[in-house]
Each structure stands twice: as C-alpha cells, then as structure tokens.
Known about the structure:
With 77 residues, chain A is mainly α. Chain A is built from 3 helices and no strands.
Amino acid sequence: MSESDKTRQKLIDSMRKTKAGTTAKPRTATKANAEKAGLPSSQSPGDTSKETKQARPEEKVSAVNSVYQRRPRVWPD
Amino acid sequence: MPIVVLVGNKGGAGKTTLAVNLAMALARRANTLLLDADPQGSSLQWLAMAEGHALPDVMDPQQDLVAQVRELSQRYKNIVVDCPPSVQAPQTHAALQVCDLAIIPVQPSPVDLWATVHIQQAIEQAKRTNPKVSAWLVINQLEARTTLSRLVRDAVEEIDLPVARTAIRRRAIYRSSALEGKSVFDTGSRGAAAVAELNQLIEEVFPS
C-alpha cells in the first residue's frame, strides 16, 4: 500500500470513528498503567510524589478562560 | 429567490469569505441582502471597509431570524445568511428552517472533516420542517499539491451529503480583497481565477 493509500485509509477510518462517536480521550491507558504498577489510580507510574499535586479542574478551567477571554476572539477566515 | 445559508461546525472553514463573495456576485445580478447572523460580525466588518463598489445590503439578525428572513424575502431577490461556526447555534438552526440552499464549506484537513461529520444530522433534522432545503458540501481552500487536498474527495463521501464538483482553491486574493472591503469580483485580473470558480459554483449549486 502506498503512503497516499495509507493516508487515505487513516482519514476515512478517522471519519468513521467520529461518526460512530468512538473518539473518547484515551484516559484508560494511564489508569491501566497505574493499576499494573500497583499504584493508586490517581498516580501514574512515573510519579514519585506521595500525593499527586494537580490543579483542581476548576482552577485549570478558570486559568484557561481568563487567558482566552482577555484576547480578542477572532475566527480565522 | 434563493435564500442561501453558509453553515459549518468549525471556525476558519471560509463561511464568511464565501458568504461575502457570493453575496457580491449575486448583487451584480439582482438586489441581494447579506444577513450576518454570526455574533463575530465578520461579514459586517468586511463590508464596512468597502468604498464605491457594488454591494449587497447588509443587515444584523433580529431575535426571530425565521420571521425576519421570510419578511425580507419579499423585498430581496437573493438573501445570503452567514451563520456562526456551530450547527448547534440557534442562528444556524433558524437559518436552516427557511433556506433553499445550505452551503457547507469544508477545508481539506482532518480536524475540519471531523467537525463536519455530524452536519448531516443537522441537515436531516432541518428537512423535517423545511423539505426544500438543498445542502452541498463545498471543498474550500484547496491546495492542489498537498496529499490531503487530493484525498479530501474520498473523505467527504463519508459525510453522506452531496459534494460540489467545484472546489474553491486557497488563493491570497480572497484574503487580500477583504482588507479593501472588496470581493474577488472587484479585483480585476488578479481575481479572474477566483471569479471563474465562484461563478462555476453558483451555476452548479444554486437553484435555477
């Protein structure tokens, strides 16, 4: 199969997945790896800290929103 | 008297560029209104830059877009509605209820194609109350030498809507004409190729 054919097939497959609604974010990979390593699911295998410090979701969202809202929203055209 | 809406599910596909250029093309043939239903207001901004060339009338949408368009269709031969970049937007939903023709520009990029996949459902829903609506995907900003541009026709078949044979190429003249409030129809020989493809698109998809 040529590179062009591979790209075509990837593109078509991706669209079929999108239509079927099967494009959920791959969070299960991290959880599965954590389980394999015998760690709490909130901690990934590479994390050596006892408590995983993560920004609370609402803090992340408000940080993103404040940057987003400060800049003028201009759709590219 | 066609009511044409430019719809899409993603910004940057070229709805406003096509809306303004189509409205300008139609204004040369009959009295035409461009209704800027996108809160972004890009069509209004574009035409605010214009000086001394043939323009369509331009209007803001009212609360009841359906009633507004129906009333205006008694006064204008052509109405072009530039919708927001979301099929969930109430303006898009309303515009699909009253239009004759829905043009869905889609760029040859995976992200744009994914965003466009579910537009078919919105069209099918619109057809339940507006059976006359005719929807066309229009490949926009085509760059002939890229792999994705060559493959895009295969990909859009997954969307299960008619695809215009006429594709609109990515041309600098579409962008540069905006700065002067012009359409490609006002740019002389620089815009000749763009004019030809737009006229070809109008011939292909507009109801006769």
